[in-house]
Design brief:
Number of helices: 10
CATH superfamily of the largest domain: Glutaredoxin
Main location: other
CATH architecture of the largest domain: 3-Layer(aba) Sandwich
Number of domains: 3
Keywords: Cytochrome c-type biogenesis, Disulfide bond, Redox-active center
Structural class: alpha+beta
Protein name: TlpA family protein disulfide reductase
CATH class of the largest domain: Alpha Beta
Low-confidence stretches: none
Pfam families: Redoxin
Order of helices and strands: HEEEEEEEHEHHHHEEEHEHEHEEH
Strand content: 15-25%
GO molecular function: oxidoreductase activity
Shape: globular
Mean pLDDT: 93
């Protein structure tokens, strides 16, 4: 009998010490306070460009199981965009108030430590960039280096302090990413200084000539001297550009009696001219509508360092630059800027 008891105890100890296999999936669940009935949670993988849509019920509850090939830093969209990190074997509870996501976003369960670090990093980046990231990138060399080095020091100190609580793969990836970030910031700093030297406030704007005009003939930038010019660089295939159109229409209406020209330049290919014309008609676009001569490779675009659209540019009555990257029509700051000028 004693032998049987001993065998049973040994078996129990072996079973207790046996490592539980990791799950080959992640679970994400939680609650949205003040949910919007028309919105579900969207997880976008920027590496694969694939999305996962998670239903949010009328009470704001959601739950889904995701089988992941690799850990993923998802751009998570619920009206606003924030980051969520997931890897297999996580059981992550996420909650937030839809009216103020960044301030109320909380994580619990397996994976909370990693996501709380991501949340810290996001806030830390916001502090580094300030209200205008171009001011940081265009800072004098010493100031730029001091701010960047202080950011890196705090990042590493926080990561080291949390390392024992974090997944080792996550830690390694974060260290790799932050070094790539610093390299990228140094390169962007050099480019921003170059941009500032060529596109600074008060400098003459780069020119374009003989762009196709929707109403007939061609137009050049010099044709619009004598009025302020608000330039919208867009394309029919650009979703964020289309999003701005209703806001632009409202701004045009608000300033229709002022000395300002609203000039839209499409960077669609010449072969898509019919598509460009159709969208102008379908959307009832107002203002001056032009088609660039060489799509995104047009010299005017490269002269303005336009790597993504929409881009908005504001020029004064003499054709000099007020802002090479002006506020979008959807931003309140645009009307404030217009009202500050003698338009």
């Amino acid at each position: 009998m004693r032998n049987l008891i001993l065998i049973a105890l040994v078996s129990l100890m072996v079973s207790c010490n046996k490592e539980v296999p990791k799950k080959d999936y992640a679970v994400l669940y939680g609650t949205v306070e003040n949910p919007n009935d028309s919105i579900n949670l969207r997880l976008f993988n920027p590496v694969s460009s694939k999305s996962v849509i998670i239903d949010v019920d009328e009470n704001g509850n959601f739950r889904d199981t995701l089988k992941l090939e690799n850990p993923v830093n998802y751009n998570t969209v619920y009206d606003k965009v924030f980051e969520v990190y997931l890897q297999n074997d996580m059981d992550l509870n996420m909650s937030f108030d839809a009216s103020n996501i960044q301030e109320t976003l909380t994580f619990k369960g397996k994976g909370a430590e990693e996501n709380n670090f991501i949340k810290f990093k996001t806030g830390h980046l916001s502090s580094l960039f300030g209200k205008d990231y171009k001011e940081y990138l265009g800072a004098e060399e010493t100031d730029f280096n001091v701010r960047t080095d202080a950011f890196m020091t705090t990042f590493y100190a926080t990561l080291d302090n949390k390392e024992a609580l974090l997944d080792s793969t996550f830690v390694a990836d974060e260290k790799k990413k932050i070094e790539e970030f610093k390299t990228g910031m140094v390169a962007q700093h050099e480019q921003q200084l170059e941009i500032n030297s060529k596109l600074g406030k008060g400098l003459p704007s780069p020119e374009f000539t003989d762009y196709v005009n929707y109403k007939g003939g061609t137009s050049s930038l010099s044709d619009f001297k004598g009025s302020y010019v608000y330039i919208d660089v867009w394309a029919t295939w650009c979703v964020p550009c289309i999003y701005e159109m209703p806001y632009l229409a409202k701004v045009e209406e608000a300033f229709k009696d002022k000395n300002i020209t609203f000039l839209s330049i499409s960077v669609d290919n010449q072969k898509d001219k019919a598509k460009w014309r159709k969208m102008i008609e379908t959307k009832a676009l107002d203002g001056v509508q032009l088609l660039a001569d060489n799509a995104t490779e047009s010299k005017f675009m490269t002269d303005y360092y336009i790597f993504g659209i929409p881009r908005f540019i504001l020029l004064d009555k003499e054709g000099n630059i007020v802002s090479y990257d002006a506020p979008r029509p959807s931003e309140e700051g645009l009307k404030d800027l217009f009202n500050s000028l003698d338009i």
